[in-house]
Amino acid sequence: MPDQSKKSWKPFFSLIRKAKLPWGLYGLTFIVMFLTSTFSLMSPKIMQRILDGEIFNQPLVYKYIGLSIATAITVSLSGLVRVFATSQGTRNIQNTVWSKYIRVPLPFFNKEPSLLLISRLTHDPQHINGAVNHFISILMSTYGLVGSIIIMWTMNVKLTLVLLPVIPYILIVSLLVGHFTQKTQDQVQTRYSGMTAFLAERLPKIRLIKSFGKEQQEIEQGDDVIDDQYQADVKRAFVDLYGEPLIQSVQGVIMGLILVYGGYLTTTGELDVGSLVAFYLYAANIHNHVQSYGVFYQNLKAAKGAAHKISDVVYSDSEAYKREKSFAEVIEDSDGDIRLEHLAFQYETQDVLRDVNFNIPEGKVTAIVGPSGGGKTTILSLIERFYEPNVGRIILGHTPAEKIHLDEWRNAFSYVSQGSPLLSGTIRDNIIYGGNDNITDEQVKEAAAKANALEFIEAFPEGLDTEVGEMGSKLSGGQRQRIAIARAIIKDPDYLLLDEATSSLDVETSSKVQEALDVLMEGRTTIVVAHNLSTVKNAEQIIVIDQGKVNGLGTHEELIKDNDLYRNLVEIQFAKEQRLAW
Ligand SMILES: Nc1ncnc2c1ncn2[C@@H]1O[C@H](COP(=O)(O)OP(=O)(O)O)[C@@H](O)[C@H]1O
Ligand SMILES: [Mg+2]
Q1: Does the beta carbon of 377 sit less than 6 angstroms from any atom of ligand 1?
Q2: Given the CA of residue 375, which atom of ligand 1 is nearest to it?
Q3: Degrees to nearest 5, angle at CA 164 with 161 and 169
Q4: Is 530 helix (H, G, I), strand (E, B) or coil?
């Protein structure tokens, strides 16, 4: 872990080391910029000689023209190289962050809102890369500044001495303007993110807004958010309004000094007109160079902040996929029973599971039932090893789960939940997601048929090529569910986790999905969480979970006899079915 204090530069440097920045391109930028700076140091001296009467000195004029052309070329070349360096640098940092996102353990995502995580990837890398790029500019500015001062010194010491005090003035002005620019720019960014967050949350909930008649309220809230953004923009514009003249004043002071004092020196014969012009050109350079120090300082501050935020992500530990044993090896040496031993778990501080013990026999159906919020989904998450238990362990055969390669472990499971998520893309894309690359259309259709989905898929004009929309929004709940089941079938897992997979569906669809599930469950170790007790009656064992504890364990008949909670649940359900039957 990096030093977390806000003052530390460690995250910044370790991040640019880790992100594999395009150092070759930065080197090239350096060389091209070095040439540009050298040319612009040479050019006023030649101008001076030309103005001093050497206008008919052809080689000199050619040299001047050549130098101008060379400068033009290196300037545009450095622009080009910088574009590449900047884009590649940003891209590499973004790649680092993205692959980290995919590999960090699930608890990470419970802590951070996803919009914040998005901005870590879109926005912050630019700051870091910007600072690296600007560092090259600073080297060049230093070179240009020192070079200019030395040349001016050799031309006229007095005028140089008069100009030197301008340097701190430029520095103060550019730091001041830079400070307020950065501050207001940050605010613009924050407000902009706020607006994006507001829109991203509201737009998918338009139905909710309309059905509760909250249009006016939402319009007003949106207006407020938009107005916040506007206010920040105005502040930012005011900084430019006052900052720009301040920056310009520097130029005025320099020009004034050179014209007044330099002019005076020409009348006394200490300076000729050519030198005066050359002096002016060098002094203009000084202005640009010093100003870039101010900009650099602001850049560096922003980059440091960004590096701190990103390093939280980049230095979180990834899930360790490689463990001691392969899944296949463990299964070969023992049966495929999974045992939960003394499991205790908390998401944050509250106990969600306490001392959970039970065995999941291979090839059989284990059902988990119990009141909502009792911890059933959490048990499935622990079995899939999305979270580590705080106490206790999960054992496959004789081997503790944490000793088995994580990727292979998860590959052995399929999880079908109530709101099975689909990704945007076609139905085919979504089904294939469960398998490897070389899956034929025949296999996709076979899986769809087993999932009871082929009929409705073929009823779409575009069949498997039908787009499912964002999160599958163009399909009904039952259709989404059956595609999710087809996806699970393609994966062909040894273990199946079903989490209330039919509970949000109407009776008819639910029975279609149940049929599909029955096919999927055949010959697999299945753990099924179900609301509808009639679907779990035939399970080999039923586990009653209440408030994070195992309240009862047995077959349907045993539990009806011995377990009050289970009997109660069955009675409630029975009464409901009676009502429905009427
Ligand atoms: N990601 C989470 N972060 C914090 N608490 C959670 C999270 N998921 C579930 N919980 C809490 O854990 C408890 C058990 O939830 P869950 O396992 O989903 O219950 P069930 O599936 O039995 O309805 C609930 O009190 C719930 O509020
Ligand atoms: Mg649940």
Answers
A1: yes
A2: 17
A3: 150
A4: coil
Ligand 1 close to Cβ of residue 378 (< 6 A): yes
Residue for token pair 């106490």? 391
Report CA(547)–ligand 1 centroid distance (Å).
Answer: 10
pLDDT under 70: residue ranges of the chain = 1-7, 504, 580-582
> Which protein residue's CA is at the shortest distance from atom 1 of ligand 1?
110
Q: What are the chain's domains? A: 10-314 (1.20.1560.10), 419-492 (3.40.50.300)
Model-level pTM? 0.81
- Return the C-alpha torsion angle 139, 140, 144, 145, nearest 10: -30
Which is nearest to 354 in space by CA: 105, 545, 106? 545
Residue found under tokens 């055969």 = 397
Residue nearest to atom 20 of ligand 1 (CA): 373
Structure token digits, residue 526:
């299945």
3-state secondary structure of 554: strand
Q: What is the DSSP string of 368-413?
A: EE-STTSSHHHHHHHHTTSS--SEEEEEETTEEGGGB-HHHHHHTE
Per residue in 114-162, pLDDT (tens digit) is 888 888 898 889 888 888 888 898 999 999 999 999 999 999 999 999 9
Active site residue 500: yes
Ligand with minimal distance to 418 CA:
2
Q: Quote the CA–CA distance of 302 and 304 in Å, as a whole number.
A: 5
C-beta of 375 in contact with ligand 1 (< 6 A): yes
